[in-house]
Structure formats: structure tokens, C-alpha cells
Write a structure and sequence with these properties.
By secondary structure, the chain is an alpha+beta fold. It folds into two domains: 3-79, Roll (Ubiquitin-like (UB roll)); 88-167, Orthogonal Bundle (DNA polymerase, domain 1), CATH 1.10.150. It contains five helices and five strands. A five-stranded mixed beta sheet has the order 2-1-5-3-4, sandwiched between helices. Helix 3 (105-120) packs across helix 5 (155-167). InterPro entries: 2Fe-2S-bd, 2Fe-2S-bd_dom_sf, 2Fe-2S_ferredoxin-like_sf, 2Fe-2S_ferredoxin-type, 2Fe2S_fd_BS, Aldehyde_Oxdr_Iron-Sulfur, Beta-grasp_dom_sf. Pathway: Alkaloid degradation; nicotine degradation. This is Xanthine dehydrogenase YagT iron-sulfur-binding subunit. Pfam families: Fer2, Fer2_2. Keywords: 2Fe-2S, Iron, Iron-sulfur, Metal-binding, Oxidoreductase.
Length: 168
């Protein structure tokens, strides 16, 4: 099939990459850039393990073609921390046991970073009351994080970690 060159800025580093037009963003980042933190779970966009940020918005990267991200800013789990200092979401996951096996954790963390930004920007969720601003309580956090599954069932720690990071 066809091949094209795409330019991706991944975690602040610009890359020109020759890719098959059918290659997903997830496979491109994992196989071509050797950034393997983002996981391939279901490869159908249902589990959220592959969640990355594209121009600051969360995407399930197993469904996004690399060519659709041409010229865009991509942040993977490897780009969330500030060098040796963990992002507040990462620190909260460590402090509050927001993980068990850790397979879904990169996607959970990327999604949580986006959730906090969406909340800060005033975006409502499906459970936000129409007549009042949303409080980032447990119900809001669970709804906003609902696209990320955890087979271990570490949801209590995940919700607590997102809440703690929101306070930071």
C-alpha cells in the first residue's frame, strides 16, 4: 500500500517518519520511535490503554492513523513528567495506589491529565447538572474517566488519585 512521510512532534521532539498510510499512531510511536509506555490493549478503541494526548486532547491512539496526526503535538506517558519531577497526576497515582499490574496506567494517567484540563476549561460531562457548574467529585471523575478500563479493578485508587491531582 501507500507510504507517506509524516511529521510528528512527540514529547517535544520533532520527527519526520515514513509510514504506511494504514499505520496507527500507537504503532508508529511504539514501533518507529521506541516509546513503548503507551500500551496496546484491545486494539479496538474500547479499553483506553493506548490513550495519548494530541494537541492536548486525549485520543485512543490505536484508532487514530499516524497520517491524521501529521504536524501535530503528541504527548505520550513518557512526556507527562517534567524531567525528573513527576506530574501531579503521576505522583498521586504513586501515593494513592492508583494502579495494580500497571498495564492500563499510562493510558489512565494521560486521560486523567486531559480530564483535569477539560474540567479546568469548564467542559461539562454527561453527569454535570445543566444549571450548575460541575464539582470534580467522585461521580464526575468516574464519568470523565469511563473510557479507561482497569482489569485489576483499581478504580478506587484511580478516582482518589485524580481527585488528589485536581487539588494540586
Amino acid at each position: 500500500m501507500g507510504r507517506v512521510e509524516v511529521t510528528l512532534t512527540v514529547n517535544g521532539v520533532r520527527h519526520a517518519i515514513d509510514v504506511d498510510t494504514r499505520m496507527s499512531l500507537l504503532d508508529t510511536v511504539r514501533e518507529r520511535l521506541a516509546l513503548t509506555g503507551s500500551k496496546k490493549g484491545c486494539d479496538q478503541g474500547q479499553c483506553g490503554a493506548c490513550t495519548m494526548l494530541v494537541d492536548g486532547r486525549r485520543v485512543v491512539s490505536c484508532l487514530q492513523l499516524a497520517i491524521a496526526a501529521d504536524g501535530r503535538e503528541v504527548t505520550t506517558i513518557e512526556g507527562i513528567a517534567d524531567r525528573d519531577r513527576l506530574h501531579p497526576v503521576q505522583q498521586a497515582f504513586v501515593d494513592l495506589d492508583g494502579y495494580q499490574c500497571g498495564y492500563c496506567t499510562p493510558g489512565q494517567i494521560c486521560s486523567a491529565v486531559a480530564v483535569l484540563q477539560e474540567y479546568s476549561d469548564g467542559w461539562p460531562s454527561a453527569v454535570t447538572a445543566a444549571d450548575e457548574p460541575a464539582a470534580l467529585d467522585e461521580v464526575e471523575i468516574r464519568e470523565r474517566m469511563s473510557g479507561n478500563l482497569c482489569r485489576c479493578g483499581a478504580y478506587a485508587g484511580i478516582v482518589a488519585a485524580v481527585g488528589r491531582a485536581a487539588e494540586a
